[in-house]
Amino acid sequence: MGFFEKFKQGLKKTRESFFGKMKSILSGKKLDDETKEEIEELLILSDVGFEATEYILNRIEELKGEDAYESLKKVLLEILNFNSELKIEKKPFVISMVGVNGSGKTTTAGKLAEYFSKSGKSVVLAACDTFRAAAIDQLKVWAERTSSTFIAHQEGADSAAVAFDAVSHAISKEKDIVILDTAGRLHTKKNLMEELRKINRVIKKKIEDAPHEVLLVIDAVTGQNGLQQAKIFKEFVDITGIVLTKLDGTAKGGIAIAIAKELGIPIKFVGLGEGVDDLKPFDAEDFVNALLEG
User: Fold this and answer.
1) Which end of the chain, N or C, is less surrounded by CB atoms within 10 Å?
2) Given CA atoms 157, 161, 88, 176 in this order, what sign does their dihedral have?
3) Is the pLDDT of residue 2 over 80?
4) What would you measure as the largest C-alpha separation in the chain, in angstroms?
């Protein structure tokens, strides 16, 4: 099955519940007060959120199109279609994975390793979540599965030291990519954010502009709660992109639109299932077509 087909299948619930209805309400019509109210309700219910919903409706009105559905499509593409490509321009290229426990961060780190390995890149996976033995063990399995180099210390070790060792190893062995799987204890956020900053400080001693990407992993099923998590991380860490996981498990795919609009951070990858190949670069056009057209 092609990835667009997976997209269509993964977004089936949200399309049937919300966005497909918008298509039938708006196709061939102008936006009037009655349809505006219906669309507003559907957008908010789909997790697009109040702020992004108001923006979308205002933009549709500004476009003054005869077909409000085509205008909606155009506006969604405007919101989602920016800087989504992850460009590997340095070697080693360092990616820091951040996000709360349970968001699928360690699994995503492993799937990213698979994605890069398949394109011929050599990958180092670093177990910087030293607070959870399970996370270290899980990442080790992913390293074996993806033929990546695995760097870890024992449970409770200094996560910045693990990151430093991983970057040092990548430099000495001329590896292409380093993926740092960091801890995600948001309830003790001050300590966590200090830890993330320390990791960044330490690896800069080896590579001045590292990390080159900071990817925040958000579980799409958590909806608006995921958006709040992202806002907290953004206060402390310079997030360069979002990885939206479990998009196939939610009936509210509108969260992708809320994240892009409210945070101004591009979605770079999406996860649509449990398989090793189910993480792919985000494509705004495919996403919007799958959401509205099916």
Assistant:
1) N
2) negative
3) no
4) 64
Residue 243, annotated as binding a ligand: no
| 26 labeled binding residue | no
Residue 246 marked as a ligand binder: yes
Average pLDDT over residues 20-43: 94
Q: In this structure, what DSSP letter does residue 213 have? A: E
Q: What is the DSSP letter of 39?
A: H
Could you write out the DSSP letters of every residue in 72-121?
HHHHHHHHH-SS------SSSEEEEEE--TTSSHHHHHHHHHHHHHHTT-
CA–CA separation, 213 vs 87, rounded Å?
Answer: 9
Q: Do the strands 267-271 and 279-281 form a parallel or antiparallel pair, or are they unpaired?
A: antiparallel
- The pairing of strands 241-245 and 267-271 is parallel
d(CA 160, CA 28): 57
Contacts of 5 (CB under 8 A, 6+ apart): none
- Whether residue 251 is predicted with pLDDT greater than 70 in this model: the reply is no
DSSP per residue, 157-181: --HHHHHHHHHHHHHHTT-SEEEEE
238 is an annotated ligand-binding site residue: no
Q: Using an 8 Å Cβ cutoff, are 116 and 123 in contact?
A: yes
Confirm or deny that 240 is annotated as ligand binding.
no
The model carries a pTM of 0.94
**How far is CA 149 from its chain centroid?**
24
For 87, list phi and psi in degrees, rounded to 5: -100, 120
Is the alpha carbon torsion for 248, 251, 252, 257 positive or negative?
Answer: positive
